[in-house]
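G.,

No rush on this.
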Amino acid sequence: MAICRWLMMVAVVALCASGARAETRIALVVGNSDYVAVTPLPNPASDARLVAATLRSLGFEVQELIDSDRTALVRGISQFGRSLRQAGPEATGLFYYAGHGVQSFGSNYLLPVSVELQDAADLDLVAVEVQSVLRQMSSAGNRTNIMILDACRNNPFSAIPAFGDNGLAEMKAPTGTFLAYATAPGSVALDGAAGNSPFTAAVARLMPTPGLAIEQMFKQVRVEVIRATGGAQTPWDSSSLTSNFAFSEAERLSSRDLEARQFWESIKDTRDAVQIMLFLRGYGDTVFAEEARTLLTDVMAQELAGEAAPASAAPAGPSSEEQRLFDAAQAQGSIAGWQRYLEAYPDGTFAEYASGEVAALSAAAGNDPDGAGAPDPAPEVIAAAPAPAPDVPPTFRGLLVSPEPAVNGRSIADLINSTPLFPPIEGLPDDYWKGQKCSNCHDWTEDRICVQAQTYVSSDKALDKKHPLGGSFKAALRDWATAGCP
């Protein structure tokens, strides 16, 4: 009996593991370049290979057809539909085609490399209607289907009557389908001069972006293609998807990275150098730190160059060597790294910032690089701030009780527009903060300050760092956020 129970447990675990696997992904990828009776195309075969390799890396089972005649193309489409039907309702199907495509009487056709045509009435006999692919996909009853057509290079039958229209006709996407065209209906797409069409190159580059929804991905494809073609080509798409889909799963962030993202999203668009430095102080070890360092470099360079350059002259940026030393010092985050930068560029673009970093790091380490600095400030004791009564949590406009005279009897709404009591970062030059108002540096709103206050609830480390308005104010923000920011 024990053996039977054990076997049943193994079977249940195996069944659960099977059900937990990601959905089946099946793709048919076709690239036709080597046409016999119409104009050959340089890139579709390499386009198809690029897409096939990208899809395989993203977990698709890929059937790849290169330079197919009509028989091979029809057989491949039939097998594709059969595979989708066998895969079940949770499967994802994808059809990609690169090559010649035409429209006739409102219907779209894909051209095999063997195509020969003298009369428009024979098109059904020598080409493959796009609707036949959609019918195969729809018959599977699966959740998500995707069709990508890079098939509007030119019209190879322009001399034949009834073939005066360029490109493909617009199609309606059956329920659960996403249709993507290399260019707008009735327009011609570029084949490309770099081994791949501009459309397919953008598609393959963006597909692996973690967590990027398919709708957003093709919006970015559109932007890239418009830029690459100088506005000559505008990709098009049509969707009837009923569920979310991304080619690559979103990166799973740690709780600390999630906390950092909340703070980073609240400040990055302000381009506020002080706020970015504060972020790096608190979250310099998270996945958003590199983006923050890059933005800070750009902001500081603009600010410092803008102050130094005459109005009539374009601000001069740092040399490549200065930029390299600055980036290295930022990455290292040590006194020695910043001093190396200052020794090489004492009057450099980032000299003032580097000096501030040396001072801040020295203060944190309890030493003074010059041996003559001011003594370290006394540590701030957040616990000294009396907490409001449990039944009366702080509110945004309610008056606070604090041992700090500049805070006592004032509200959060008032204080976020007041003058800082302490530097936002230890060692920050006085010119950056003394006599300034918080509103000069931060576009604070009730919602934004609530987002920052949440970090004090979820992180004890955040409470250990000095706040420009004092520890009792930070404690008040924490209590306010705990109460839901009333």
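When you get to it, here's the other one too:
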Amino acid sequence: MTNACHIAFIGLGHMGGPMAANLLKAGHTLTVFDLMPAAVEAAVALGAKAAPNALHAVTEADVVITMLPASQHVEALYLGEGRLIHAVKPGALVLECSTISPEVARAVHAAAKTRGVAMLDAPVSGGTAGATAGTLTFIIGGEAANLERARPLLEAMGKNLFHAGSAGAGQVAKIANNMLLAIHMIGTAEALNLGVANGLDPKVLSDIMRVSSGGNWSLEKYNPWPGVMENVPASRGYEGGFGVDLMLKDLGLAMEAALASKSSTPLGSLSRQLYALHSSQGHGGQDFSSIQQLLKRS
């Protein structure tokens, strides 16, 4: 798949839209569908062709890429009422890039295999900025041969490709990573809150911890205290970035996986409770670093 190919792209939201745009820039032909007409219009303005529904989008496609909000949407589209997997032509390649439960990913893999369709679950990391810049990280589950087939397309949208393992492994790795992200964001916010409450300057404390044993990604790249770091959501009213409700969804997926595997995740469970509380207070649409505000009030 080194040459331009016909791609059906379904799900043109904050992540899917920029990903589709980068595929168009790379010279591929896209047929697109989204429930939001404005998202479809934006892709069409860049050269994509609009489909009236998802089934029409995939019938002639060599590759199908989906980027949807949650497990239930993916399951309904491919296996439920949508029955999309039955419309994908045998021999095509499916790249399912949503963050969903490993169980649903494996079920779609199995259905694809019975149809003679190649598939990868390939959730992404890097946020909307990475989607726009084409620097996403793809965390991939599925057969290695399918990854090599998909590599040129993934490299048009991302910078780092990791083969995590067999079907569903991409989802497991993604939710494990995001559980850790939630934990160290809360820990960073808690430490900053403690220091400021005891008279420290948050930037000075951040500088100290950044080069000490408390250093971590949230502290160094995505500081949650307003004004400490430029160009992060904390310094623009926690707007943009990765939403609280999206983090809450991923933590729910982590807890489901923990139950299924009888894994002990006490900090992940506590993180989910804190993000659920924060969301219930009206902050679900803010960036997940706004958990700093919950701790400041408590």
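The CA atoms of residues 23 and 156 lie 6 Å apart. The chain has a mean pLDDT of 95.

Enjoy the weekend,
O.
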